[in-house]
Every structure is written in C-alpha cells, then in structure tokens.
Design a protein that fits this description.
By secondary structure, the protein is an alpha+beta fold. Helix content is 36%, strand content 18%. The protein has a domain of 174 residues: 3-Layer(aba) Sandwich (Peroxisomal Thiolase, Chain A, domain 1), CATH 3.40.47.10.
Amino acid sequence: MKAGNEPRRTVWIVDGARTPFLKARGKPGPFSAVDLAVAAGRPLLLRQPFEADAVDEVILGCAAPRPEESNPARYAALRLGCGQRVPAWTVQRNCGSGMQSIDSAARAVADGRADLILAGGAESMSNAPLLVSRAMTIWLADWGRARGLAARLRTLAALRPAHFAPIVGIVLGLTDSFVKLGMGQTAEILADRFGISRESMDAYALESHKRLARAQGDGTFDGEVEPIFDTAGKVYLADDGVRPDNTMEQLAKLRPAFEPPYGKVTAGNASQITDGGGWVVVASDEAVRRHRLTPIARVVDCLWAGVDPAQMGLGPAHAIAPLMARNGVKLGDIDLFEINEAFAAQVLACLAALADADYCRAEIGVEDAVGMIDHSRLNVDGGAIACGHPVGVSGTRVVLHLIHALRKRGMKRGVASLCIGGGQGGAMLLETA
C-alpha cells in the first residue's frame, strides 16, 4: 500500500475492444450482458502477452443486470478465464457506469493497489424484463396463502384483467422517479431553455449518422469493434442502427416521441435502445514493463458532477468545465471531444452552456466560459444517435473511441463525457501515448 504522501502513479490504457452495438427491434436480442462482455473480452485478452488470470481485478459497468447475472463482472471474468482467485465487481452509475469502471480502475492503479485491471461495461437493453404490477404481486401472495376450494375461489374472483398488464422494465429504467420525468422529457426541457430548434436537432442527428457510416466505410473501427456470433451462427460485424440514407425531410416527418404534439425530441434525434459490451485494459508502469505492453493513452483525470435531475442532460457541461479548470487546460488545448449523444438537444444544450460565461460562472462555478466547441472536433465519427446507447457500456465506448480517434489523427489530448440519468455528468481527460 502506498503511503499517503507518495506521488500517484501513472495510469495507462494499453488496449481495448467492444462489440458492435445492436439495435433493439421490439424483442429480446440474442445476447445477455455477460454474453456481450465475454464477446468483447475474449479477442481482447487473446491478443495480450499476459494470461487472463494475470489481471488483478475485473470491473464492469452494468445498469440493469438480469437476476441470473446479479454480478455480471464476476460471471464475465470466470467465462473469460480470469480464474477463481481474481476478484470482480460491478458498478452502476446509470449512463456513466462504463466510465466509472475505468475511473475506479485508474484510481486503484494510481494508488498502488493494483497493476493490471480489466475495466469496461455491458448492457442488453433489449432483454430488460417485463414486470408484474404491485396489485398482481399482492394477488399472487394471496393465492399462495389460500387454502381449500372456497378460499381459492374467493381469491380467483378478485382477479381482474388489469392485473395482467405488464410493466415494461426499460420504460421504468428510463424514467426519473425523483422528478417523475422520462429522459426524453428532460431533453425537451433543455431544448426550451436554450432555444434549440427541431431543425437543428434533426441536422445534428443526420450528421451523426453520416459520420458513423463514413467511419465504418473507411476502416476506422478496425481493431476497436470485434465481430460477434450468436448461437445460430449469425455474425454481427458493425453497429447496425446507422441510417446514412436519412434526409432532413424524412426526419421532419417523425412525430414527437415524449411531448406530443408540440415537442421536438423524436426517435430520429435521440439515441437508440441498444445492446453492447466493451473493455479497456488499465495498467501501471510496472505492468507495462513486466508484460512489455505498449500504452495507447494515459488517463490524466476524471471528474463527476451533479445537476438538476430534470435537466440531467447538462451533466457533461458541469463535468467538463471544472475538469479542464482543475488541470489548467483551455479549449484550444483539447484536440477532440466525445460527448455521448443521449439526445441531440442534450448535446447542443451542453455546447451552449459551455460557451456562456454567465452560465459557467453562476451554474457551474468556474471563472469563465470554456468556449464554443467546434463541431469538427466533436464526435468526429458519429455518436450514440447513430450507433446506440447501451447504458452500461457507453462510458467505455466514448473513452475507447476517443483514444482511437486521437491516434488516427496524430492528436494528443481529448475529453470524453456523458450525461447521466438521475442528474449527473462525468468527464475524463486523456492523452495519447
């Protein structure tokens, strides 16, 4: 254990991989969260010079694990061959879970408590359960206690058609129970607050799809996205929700999804319900030397912030600004930004907030505006509107892809960030190795 006055150690990311993100299409997908974690982790670990059981621990972000996968990190670690002695734990910070896993790993390495950690995230949103209502739960309990024909007939007579109405787990998960608002409704609040037009939201979404399609076509994701196979032998090679042939006219025809008839947020300018998994390998200098690893990036810092749950989409602004201030970097020092696209309105609101000096001083508590982030430096290969937002792994995706995007362009420094349901934001500052 390092003494409290010793300097924190350098934290490296040496490799990473993710699965294609698979759009939910009205029925359960072929993979559980653990399946997706294993599918991403197997090729990643196979190409490492160390054995799977050489890692000190495994940390996985997952917002909604299935009951039979109650600690998906542990099940994934065992299936990946990490062995019984390697501890594994699951983190849940809603949309920030995949970044939280990397932050937790980085802190353990920096403090000297670990040298080599597998950190990532996984989510199978299409497999979110259907639940029974409280009334049905009570009725089932009464039925279980009923003894004799007369008691059972009385209990049966109390059963009503409404008891059979299912509760959709994914809808519950995407609703903030504190402010009683769906995530899309919080995006509508931001669109109104910052005067964001439906046209600008649709234009942003269209560009996200075009950028992702272009990146898929030019091999940008080679080495980052690994193919996966289902039990029927079908192969999935790439994020399958991208729609590069969309037009502004088509997007304009979509009806408001959350606040009809006058809302601006639609299925076209919001992220998709998606399944996916991904990992990065976090290492110390000692692990790099011992295993002859080649770092691809350094984790400089990570910061988490809280915001009004009804305006949760502003979380990235509230994390990015103090993160940059704490590390003494200005807008011109950051080559690329990755801000997860939960909604086009949310990203555009964050850009407006970061460019507004009054907002930055009064709401965030920093001395001056960060400035307007140019779109040419933001989500350069598309984002969640095009590839999807599997909640537990999106934080891993933005970190991993930011590193690849910087290295491909010969750039040095970037910030990855997400808004988080419940009213939080996270941001990570990275430098390429």
